[in-house]
Amino acid sequence: MAAEFSDDSALGGKLVLRQPRRGHRFGHDAILLAAATAARAGEHAVDLGSGIGAAGLALARRVEGLVVTLVEINPALSALGRHNAERNKLSSRVHAVCLDVAATSADFAAAGLPASSVDHVLMNPPFNVAHNPSPDPARRLAHTASRDTLAQWLGAAARLLRASGTVTLIWRADGLDEVLRALAADFGLAVVLPILPKPDAPAIRVIVRATKGANRQLARLPGFVLASADGKPSEQAEAVLRKGATLDWSGT
User: In 3-state terms, what secondary structure has residue 134?
Assistant: First the structure.
């Protein structure tokens, strides 16, 4: 049984996360998403589609006193999220619930997440177009988007968030216009941070943060560069991915 899983470190060893050896595995996206979520002690954040809990746990590790709920549809991954919270001594503040993002408001409330009750939602929704879907069911579910994915996930975030709460998501860079259209119904003050693999390379991801109920304004920050031209991790990437630094939104 142990051979089906691996124990992998994140944040330079500040987290140890058990995850399946096959299927979807956490990576930079989850850690960047956590670093981009501007949460504070005493607040409540929800990690939608949390998988094994990498993003939510990284956020809880960075922000002492923050309560985090991991929401994951896959029972096995939800159980791993609970295990990872316990293993990293975060279970007093991090709770895992097995629930579909598309569940009703009543279902969320029954799971302890009533409408207008949280301060932040972070999410890494499936964002690949289903041209050549993975044969692995868990990987396919984690990566493949439908036409309604963004609207569905952002609708769930809007219901959960208090007035002026924030949603933070990571998405394909070439799908930014799609994200902004989906945000328009419930969110404003959108801030876009492109993620670049190297200097002068096109962005591969965008992280977008927006505020529930705010006026429709848009700001774009300079890109976050993951590696130098010779392939070595950039100083900012090392600070965020290994040392647990917060992503800088000061350009807004």
Answer: coil
Amino acid at 213: G
Which residues are 59's β-sheet partners? none
Write out the two tokens for 40.
Answer: 């504070």
Range of the domain at 102: 27-241
Q: Where are the alpha helices (DSSP H) in the chain?
A: 28-36, 54-62, 75-87, 105-110, 137-143, 149-160, 176-183, 235-241
Tokens of 182: 């989906």
> Tokens in use for 103?
């569940």
CATH number of the domain residue 222 falls in: 3.40.50.150
Q: Is residue 24 very low, low, confident or very high in pLDDT (cuts 50, 70, 90)?
A: confident
| 1 belongs to a structural domain | no
Mean pLDDT, residues 29-46 taken together: 97
Cα radius of gyration (the chain): 17
Cα gap 77→80, rounded to integer Å: 5
pTM above 0.70, yes or no: yes
Q: For the residues of 9-59, what is the DSSP string, one character each?
A: EEGGGTEEEEEESSS----HHHHHHHHH----TT-EEEEET-TTTHHHHHH
Contact 128, 175 (CB under 8 A): no
The answer as to whether 175 is a domain residue is yes
Structure tokens at 62: 């960075």
Length in residues, the chain = 252
Give residue 42's identity as a one-letter amino acid code: G
Distance CA(22)–CA(50), nearest Å, equals 17
